Amino acid sequence: MDQRFYDMIEANPVIAAVKNDEGLEECCRLEDIKVIFILYGSICNIGAIVKKIKDADKIALVHIDLINGLASKEVAVNFIRYNTEADGIITTKPMLIKRAKELGLHTILRVFLLDSMAYQNIEKEIAMVRPDIIEVLPGLMPKVIQRITKNVRIPVIAGGLISEKEDVVAALGAGAISVSTTNPSVWLM
User: Fold this and answer.
1) Residue 1: pLDDT above 80?
2) Which of 18, 31, 77, 189 is 20 to 30 Å from 129 by CA-CA measure?
3) Which residues 6+ apart lie within 8 Å of 109 measured at CB?
4) What pTM was estimated for this model as a whole?
5) Kind and range of the H or E element at 108?
6) Measured between alpha carbons, how far is residue 182 from residues 1, 38, 64, 82, 102 in Å?
7) Which residues of 92-124 are buried (b: 16+ CB within 10 A; e: fewer)?
8) 18 Cβ neighbours under 8 A, 6+ residues apart
9) pLDDT tens for residues 115-153?
10) What are the residues facing 60 on neighbouring strands?
């Protein structure tokens, strides 16, 4: 993993995750926000969304699974790489992580921990594709986050349902390097 990317994520314990134009405008104005997860858009406007973030001198990571018009195929990663200025992708699909790494993009594997089987599969998925970072959802599970950070040896971001300062502190205390949230009031913590 690119050390500068890791350092930027670690130095910014709250990551703005945007799901609409209003959130995009707000986080681009906030000086303290340096990393932005893009959770919306389509093939028609994702380039413009990323450009707005890059023009604000911030890191842009596209949640490729949530972009309308892109399929869950490797060609979607090619599209992001060659048609936007995105720094990397977020996805739940290991094969897209593999392609993004081949193309020199930063990668975040998003994992939903719904049960013990999902938890057990994390190590296998990570061994297959070696993402730069994993994002664990929901992020309100300090004991699980602590276990994951000890077992996988890949930086962890906690996301989902983060709404209070105590949530941020608990996730960071459990070993997450940062949290991601769509809640603008948390962006300012």
Assistant:
1) no
2) 18
3) 90, 91, 92, 94, 97, 125, 126, 129, 131, 133, 134, 135
4) 0.94
5) strand 106-112
6) 26, 10, 17, 27, 29
7) bbbebbbbbbeeebbbbbbbebeeeeebeebee
8) 24, 27, 36, 37, 38, 39, 40, 182
9) 888 888 888 889 899 999 999 999 999 999 999 999 998
10) 36
Which residue is listed with tokens 């930086």? 155
CA distance 69 to 76: 9
Residues listed for the chain: 189
**159, β-bridge pairs:** 180
Indicate the pLDDT class of residue 2, thresholds 50, 70 and 90. Answer: confident
If you ran DSSP here, which 8-state letter would residue 114 be given?
-
Three-state SS for 34-69 is CEEEECCCECCCHHHHHHHHHHCCCEEEEEHHHCEC
Q: What is the pLDDT of residues 46-97, one digit of tens each?
A: 999 999 999 999 999 999 999 999 989 999 999 999 999 999 999 999 999 9
